[in-house]
Amino acid sequence: MRLDDLAHVPVPLFASAMGWGGLAMAWRKAHEALGWPVWIGEAAALTAAAVFALVCGLYAWKTAHHWEETVKEFRHPVRINFFAAISINLMIMGGLALPYAAELADALWMAGAALHLALALYVIGRWIEHPHDPATFNPAWYIPVVGNVLAPVVGVKLGHADAAWFFFAVGIVFWLGLLPLALNRAIFVAPPLPPKMLPTLAIFIAPPAVGFLAWRALTAPSMSFPVDPLGHVLIFAALFTALLVLRLITVLARVPFAPSWWAYTFPSAALAAGLAELAAAKGGSAFFALLAGAFVVGATAVVVLVSIRTVKAAFSGQLFVPE
Length: 323
Prior knowledge:
The protein has helices spanning 15-34, 38-65, 67-75, 84-97, 102-129, 142-146, 151-155, 161-187, 206-219, 229-247, 249-252, 265-281, 286-315. By secondary structure, it is mainly alpha-helical.
């Protein structure tokens, strides 16, 4: 890898920190619900923070020395959506920091929430101002809009209940609005998604999975029963979507490595965290504990595998290449 290659640091690489952050969330839930070792979740949290700092540093260098490349990405109809991964990471980092530094966690969450709101408004406004061909729709469009649903997972713990409800409402309503567009694009609109974009199909798992965690954060303290009907709908919708992605594994396995592989990681981890939360709410059900454990292990394998492939690609000069 040469220094000049950093001109091509892709903004989708911020999804790597999301993957590790989501895995830390999953292992923390596994510790609470299943009694699994606490140190694994904390090690994943530390890794997430290190990866986020590294990618921020690389992208800052790119922006300082190759401003035109950053502007090009921000104007790109697909890559602009990945800028929201920065704000999502700030909220995740706030959650990971919360047990150790509440003031830092609050500052990170507020910065992430404000930035995400600004990006969502800008991106949706741009969609309206400049109508798109249906064939250009892809799952990455979910990131700046549906990412709002993550805010309550941490925001409620920090005491921002009203703001958490606001972000939850935006995320859920616009998820339901984008879902028919996504299905229409996947089933009826030609041409099919380009091969390197196929891993982003896993993004469809994230909205209901994170939505379940957010809904539990918002309502669980006031509920008189473990999981309400909406909670069941969200987590089981996420589980079905994951099974659908697994159904397509023979197609997905043929996709050469690209930064888009990171799209597998956060949704997998979010579902694992949601299932661990469900297992705890079910009062130690052996079935749900086994299901949650299997998904935590699976999410861990996915994150580790994609991390290894990313490091190999970086050292072989195949990671930072022109679009």
